[in-house]
Design brief:
The protein contains 4 helices and 9 strands. The protein has about 190 residues and is of the alpha+beta class. The longest helix has 15 residues.
């Protein structure tokens, strides 16, 4: 770590985040707040999952204008962050969102993490989730939830590694690609809670 930025984000420098034994490669990422110039890369990563995966229940890809508008709304305690590789390409992104609209839920947030398919399994998701946990704690949120769609043991393991516990499974709450999908709900309480 190379210190902290004004927004409180950790800056990840030249230290590799994880060694991938299968590919024999290292990956180094920097995490920063997303900005409008990241919209196209964020949309590409997200739309890949819309069209070919079940991590999102969206069925229609986002346009670039829709992605830009979504990014404009991400600020303060509910930011979007990106992981950049050495070539300064977005290889993953993550955000905190309101858990529910009703005011009493105001101390709870939900995380979202998306990693480019070519960069999955090399620690990018772990770096992003670590930063989200830090941001949630820093902004005083009491509970952080992960709603993991479909069978996704990698995401369940990732969240477990970062202190999340399974609190339930919503059965067959979504339908995509002709199949019913469950949602695993995981929760992490703030440090010291």
């Amino acid at each position: 770590m190379n210190g902290r930025t004004r927004a409180g984000l950790k800056a990840y420098g030249s230290t590799p985040t994880m060694h991938n034994l299968f590919r024999g490669t290292f990956i180094s990422v920097k995490v920063r707040l997303a900005n409008l110039s990241d919209a196209e890369e964020i949309a590409n990563i997200y739309n890949h999952e819309v069209l070919s995966g079940v991590a999102t229940f969206d069925l229609v890809p986002k346009t670039l204008d829709e992605q830009r508008e979504w990014l404009r709304e991400r600020s303060g305690a509910l930011p979007c962050i990106v992981a950049l590789n050495d070539s300064r390409k977005v290889v993953g992104w993550a955000c905190l969102s309101k858990y529910r609209d009703r005011p009493a839920y105001g101390t709870s947030v939900e995380d979202s993490i998306y990693v480019h398919p070519e960069h999955q399994g090399v620690g990018v998701g772990s770096v992003l989730l670590s930063e989200l946990v830090h941001l949630a704690d820093e902004h005083g949120f009491h509970a952080t939830f992960a709603r993991i769609a479909g069978e996704n043991p990698a995401s369940i393991a990732l969240h477990s590694k970062h202190g999340f516990e399974m609190v339930g499974v919503e059965r067959e709450v979504g339908r995509k690609f002709g199949q019913w999908l469950d949602v695993t709900v995981m929760q992490r309480l703030a440090s010291g809670a």
